[in-house]
Structure formats: structure tokens, C-alpha cells
UniProtKB/TrEMBL annotation:
The lineage of its organism: Bacteria, Bacillati, Actinomycetota, Actinomycetes, Streptosporangiales. PANTHER family: BILIVERDIN REDUCTASE A. SUPFAM superfamilies: Glyceraldehyde-3-phosphate dehydrogenase-like, C-terminal domain, NAD(P)-binding Rossmann-fold domains. This is Predicted dehydrogenase. One of its GO terms (molecular function) is nucleotide binding. Residues 6-119 form the Gfo/Idh/MocA-like oxidoreductase N-terminal domain. It comes from the Bacteria. It comes from Actinomadura meyerae. InterPro entries: Gfo/Idh/MocA-like_OxRdtase_N, Gfo/Idh/MocA_Oxidoreductases, GFO_IDH_MocA-like_dom, NAD(P)-bd_dom_sf. Residues 128-237 form the GFO/IDH/MocA-like oxidoreductase domain.
Length: 343
């Protein structure tokens, strides 16, 4: 049996503490050290050293590190890991700018290092099942993807607005579940909490196959909601990623003798099915996939099962286009379409 991989963790915020918990219990991985730029001592698993600097972590000879520090620090930490020959699982968004994300891609790919982005929604059981069903053609042609992601403002977020923090989840998952890239986006944002960044966004986009995408994301609602609805020619799938439930609403196929309804040539109400699907913690699955990619030693960011840096870069590009659209009050063309890789 091969020796366990040596992993490190950079960042002990809310998400960082969750990473620490999972890493410390992950089969085939030893969490050998944690460093936090903000000097948070809380959340370090028993027996794991809290180090003074990233240099101290690199000196331990790690195979890879999870980067869960603030977005503004992702590039600096990622470049240091690449220079040291270590892989990296970088929390989303990959970086705060397109240029920064591009530098990270160029740092890891030529070295053949395994690096990925923590777009955790790809590992949600409901969305995994939804994507498989779309690939199998169960919905037929996809017409529209609608996401709603709202709730109270999390005080831990200080360096980015709701677009780069929350909406990047929906940007990534909409392209991933459909296998289609964005070609245009139009958005409006507002800021109501007195912070320098936006706290609400409504966006309408178009995918390469012509499907419409709608995102409603905010930090202004006392109601916490995480839903993805995909409508197509055979009905509508609704995924609730808070509960990992997936429901299908079929277009009705029974004829009607009610003359007033027979004149309507649209869809009709049919059967509703809520699927029984296995439910595993998405963060654990994400770590298992990344561990396996590191073990395989895949080159060039094409390792199966993880969100590659190039996919993370595209999500940053779309999020920047969302903000640019809101600033200019116009639709932004995102250029040629690309089909995204599978997870």
C-alpha cells in the first residue's frame, strides 16, 4: 500500500475549519500542518501543528494543500505552492480577477501539478443526479436553467461581493449540469448594506446551445434558499441543494375533453416524482476526488473528477462579465462557446 499523501491547509475561517475536519479524517491522507494568515487558532484538529507561515508548511514536504484563505490571497498562496512543486485545491472563486486566475493556471499547468477549484456544488447529490439525467436525455431539449441562492449576509465575507462569493456557485453549476458554456450575460446589481460591494444580483444569460439562464442571488433575505430548476421539453427538474433533494415535474401527456383547455398548445401538469438518491457530504466527496487525482498524478489540469483551474478561470471570467454588465447597463458577449469537462 502506498504511503498516505501529505496535505496542508491554508486558512481557518468557517470553510477552512470544515476542510480541516474532513482532511483530518480522510483515508489515505495525513493532515501534517495548518497555517492561517489571519492567525485564527480555532479549528485545528488535535495533534495537527498550527504553523507560523506558509514557508513552514512547505518545509514539511507536502504533496498538496487546500487554500481556504480570503480570495485576495489565493494567487500569492497558489503561486508559492506551485513553485514548491505542491498541488493545490483552491476554494472558489479561483481568484479575484481574470488576470490573477490566468497566472495561477500558467503556474500549475506547465509543471504538471494537480490543481483544482472548490466548486462544491458539483458534488451535491441532487446536482450529480440531475446532471446524469440530463446527459441521459431524460428532459429532452433544455430550455432554461433558473437558480435562486439567497439568505442573510455572512459576516465572514469582507473582500468580495455576492457575485464572486455566491453567484460563482450558480455560474459554475449551470454550465456544468448542461455541459454548455456561457455566450452572453446581462445583469443588475444593488448594494443595500453599506458595504463597498454589491449584495444582490439578478442576471440573465444565454448558453451555447441557446438555453436561457437566470440567476437571482442575494445577501438581503432572511429566507435561506438554494434551488436549481432546469426546464425542458419533457418537464422540469428542481434540485434543492440545502436538502439534496431532486424532484421531477413531468409534462402531462393525457388528453383532455375540456374544450377550453384543449385550445392551449403549451404544456400541462403531469406526474411529480421525488427521487431517492444516495446522500454523501459534498465536501467529503470533493476531497476524495481530489485525493484520487493527486494519487493518479494527472498532468496539465485535465484530471477527471475535479474542477480544473481552466474551468475555475472561466467562472471568474463570467463573474467579471456579470459585474461589467451591471456597471455598463448592457449585455456582455462572452465570446466562443466551450463544452466544459465532466466531474
Amino acid at each position: 500500500m502506498s504511503a498516505p499523501l501529505r496535505a496542508g491547509l491554508v486558512g481557518l475561517g468557517v470553510m477552512g475549519r470544515n476542510h480541516a475536519r474532513v482532511l483530518n479524517e480522510l483515508d489515505g491522507v495525513d493532515l501534517v500542518g495548518v497555517v492561517d494568515p489571519a492567525e485564527h487558532p480555532v479549528g485545528v484538529p488535535p495533534g495537527v501543528p498550527l504553523l507560523d507561515s506558509l514557508r513552514d508548511l512547505l518545509d514539511l514536504g507536502i504533496d498538496y494543500a487546500v487554500v481556504a484563505c480570503p480570495t485576495a490571497s489565493h494567487e500569492e498562496v497558489g503561486l508559492a505552492l506551485a513553485e514548491a512543486g505542491a498541488g493545490a485545491l483552491i476554494e472558489k472563486p479561483l481568484a479575484e480577477s481574470v488576470e490573477s486566475a490566468e497566472r495561477l493556471v500558467k503556474a500549475f499547468e506547465p509543471r504538471g501539478l494537480v490543481a483544482g477549484v472548490g466548486h462544491i456544488e458539483r458534488y451535491n447529490p441532487a446536482l450529480q443526479s440531475l446532471r446524469a439525467r440530463l446527459e441521459a436525455g431524460e428532459l429532452g431539449e433544455v430550455f432554461q436553467v433558473v437558480t435562486r441562492r439567497q439568505g442573510p449576509f455572512p459576516n465572514r465575507i469582507a473582500d468580495v461581493g455576492v457575485v464572486k462569493d455566491l453567484a460563482t456557485h450558480d455560474i459554475d453549476l449551470a454550465a456544468w449540469v448542461t455541459g454548455q458554456d456561457y455566450v452572453s450575460i446581462c445583469a443588475h446589481t444593488v448594494a443595500r448594506t453599506g458595504r463597498p460591494h454589491e449584495d444582490m444580483v439578478a442576471a440573465v444569460g444565454r448558453l451555447a446551445d441557446g438555453a436561457m439562464v437566470n440567476h437571482l442571488v442575494n445577501w438581503l433575505s432572511p429566507l435561506k434558499e438554494r434551488t436549481t430548476a432546469v426546464t425542458g421539453e419533457r418537464g422540469c427538474f428542481v434540485a434543492d441543494t440545502l436538502t439534496a433533494d431532486l424532484t421531477f415535474y413531468a409534462n402531462g401527456e393525457m388528453s383532455t375533453e375540456w374544450e377550453a383547455l384543449r385550445t392551449f398548445r403549451g404544456v400541462s401538469e403531469g406526474d411529480m416524482v421525488r427521487y431517492a438518491i444516495p446522500k454523501r457530504e459534498p465536501l467529503l466527496v470533493e476531497h476524495e476526488r481530489f485525493r484520487d487525482a493527486v494519487r493518479a498524478g494527472a498532468n496539465g489540469g485535465e484530471e477527471p473528477g475535479i474542477v480544473t483551474l481552466r474551468q475555475g478561470l472561466r467562472t471568474v471570467e463570467v463573474s467579471v462579465a456579470v459585474l461589467e454588465s451591471a456597471r455598463l447597463g448592457t449585455t456582455v458577449d462572452l465570446g466562443p462557446a466551450e463544452v466544459l469537462g465532466a466531474v
